[in-house]
Amino acid sequence: MVAASRLSLSQQIHCHDALNTRLKERKLRFGENFINFRFNNIAKRGNKLAMHASPPTDDAVVATEPLTKEDLVAYLASGCKPKEKWRIGTEHEKFGFEVETLRPIKYEQIRDLLNGLAERFDWDKIMEGDYVIGLKQGKQSISLEPGGQFELSGAPLETLHQTCAEVNSHLYQVKAVAEEMGIGFLGIGFQPKWAVKDIPIMPKGRYDIMRNYMPKVGSLGLDMMFRTCTVQVNLDFSSELDMIRKFRAGLALQPIATAIFANSPFKEGKPNGFLSMRSHIWTDTDNNRAGMLPFVFDNSFGFEQYVDYALDVPMYFVYRNKRYVDCTGLSFRDFMAGKLPPLPGELPTLNDWENHLTTIFPEVRLKRYLEMRGADGGPWRRLCALPAFWVGLLYDEVSLQNILDMTADWTREEREMLRTKVPVTGLKTPFRDGLLRHVAEDVLKMAKDGLERRGYKESGFLREVAEVVTTGVTPAEKLLELYHGKWGGSVDPVFEELLY
């Protein structure tokens, strides 16, 4: 069903063995201490990296010899782990607003909120210069998106019960501090009321670079940065072949997840013509670094091919001496050759590669785990449903194979059609002889069956989306019905309807 790539790291040997072999070679060239520092530093971060939450760490040792493509491949392969060590990581973003005015909260309010959380609930502060820009506690982190969207990046956890408990604990803490400040949080995929000019800008150096670059490569990049919220699920793989299978299944089904969780029908106080405005925005943000990645379905796909793709994605920045160096539009390949104009003669480290991977935004993203990126932000009751959906499909071998069999003859044109049309028509999108809803019904059953076979009594987390699939009515369509009816043509009530 799934062809192995040319670099069969995992069909003959375990990925870690391949990595260890590569490291022995690197020790001969770079020296024992440098390699141990670099890869131990990576390993300590565990399954869930904190790159979004904090400024990248400076390398303690300057690279004096070029990284090779094999090093970059080995970095991805180092994420392989046996099934018993697979974990679930969730990330969710939400809009903060003043309860009295519904206006977005400013950085100064966010600063006070972060300080309050740190003092009351024992979080460590993450600083950029004099600014607190996030918090960390164990393997959880809280970070800020460009317009102040408040994000929890969860710890890698074993069961959906633990994941849901983590979300509930986070929301309890945030509400405990925020309510005293007159601040609420909204679970929706696109800012429903305010224009980009009304959104405060967070004091993070990488966002300054992105803000200047985005209008050069797409018409909706600033909307993406300042007015969208998403929920994301991060999942592990055991081998290169397992990664390929999960990547393909995840990409094929991402439009179905987008439809089921579609929750962004308003813009500046009115319906915007979409059920998932957030998803549509990604079609014209920066197509060099977003989309459905058709090469994932090629027979040659594997870690090496993803590295080739990532090397060709234009850079955003390099982090040096606690500041971001603008490298927008430049080539990581040139960086590897010591020919990056802003840093002449300087060579990248694995930290630079790790940072670069965080600036790529396809519907499914590969790091040392796979990120499912297609869902709109939503209220707390749906935050546990998205990981349940993907865990049931991708962590159960029977469900995963059923998905691969079901989608094997889907064409590139069909996948792209779904990617384009689902943000507008959701589960009512025509597909082959029926509607996407009919496919979603089969997929949801596979997810439920997969969860039941896991044996953790997790299938109840899918109840929140079962009605959506059965009726074909997305959360966005329910909001539109309220807007045209009970709300009398005002979006203001959505701040209460979807309040955390």
Automatic annotation (TrEMBL):
E.C. no: 6.3.2.2
Disulfide bonds listed in the record: 164-384
EC class (word): ligase
Keyword Disulfide bond: yes
TM stretches of this protein: none
Reactions performed catalytically: L-cysteine + L-glutamate + ATP = gamma-L-glutamyl-L-cysteine + ADP + phosphate + H(+)
Gene Ontology CC terms: chloroplast
Pathway(s) the chain acts in: Sulfur metabolism; glutathione biosynthesis; glutathione from L-cysteine and L-glutamate: step 1/2
Gene Ontology biological process terms in this record: glutathione biosynthetic process
Gene3D superfamilies attached to this UniProt entry: 3.30.590.20
Any Pfam family the entry gives: GCS2
Keyword Metal-binding in record: no
Similarity comment: Belongs to the carboxylate-amine ligase family. Glutamate--cysteine ligase type 2 subfamily.
PANTHER family noted in UniProt: GLUTAMATE--CYSTEINE LIGASE, CHLOROPLASTIC
Name of the protein: Glutamate--cysteine ligase
